[in-house]
Design goal:
Blueprint (H helix, E strand, L loop, with lengths): L18 H18 L6 H26 L2 E8 L2 E7 L6 E2 L18 E2 L3 E3 L5 E2 L11 E5 L2 E5 L8
Antiparallel strand pairs: 1-2, 1-5, 2-3, 4-7, 5-6, 7-8
Amino acid sequence: MLYGKSPVSHRTTNSGFTLVELIVTMVLVAILAAYITPRFSTTGLSQRGYHDQALAALRYAQKQAVTADCTTTFTLTSTTECTVEKTGCTGSPTVNNPAIGNANFCNGTTAGSVSGGPVYFDHIGRPLTAFASILRTTDQTISIDGTTITVTAYTGLIR
């Protein structure tokens, strides 16, 4: 014995996690999984895709009216199809989607419900009431699964 102390005992240390630590970690992982899992659901992706493609097609119809110097029509024909047509122009009235080469601008996407339209644009991109060349004096709304696309009267602003 040195200086009145007992010899050093050889304690063994266990390495690893306690049961409490493991349970707390599993609970935290379960909470995070419950929060994140609905975000990976694909049910809303197709509907959002339809909305985005319809919005792009509507803007494309307006640009076609200006570049072709004639009236164009955007139509939601069903929950899986939206089309653009030119009227009062030479050539084919059907406008094909430049990305995929066919007339359906909402190809590959599906919406649960659609309402509103058709939307007509004159040769300078202003919205018309119908194919009667009368300038629209009220905003026009298109509804796709509860989200709306608004075409502003007089100016044709699409938002």
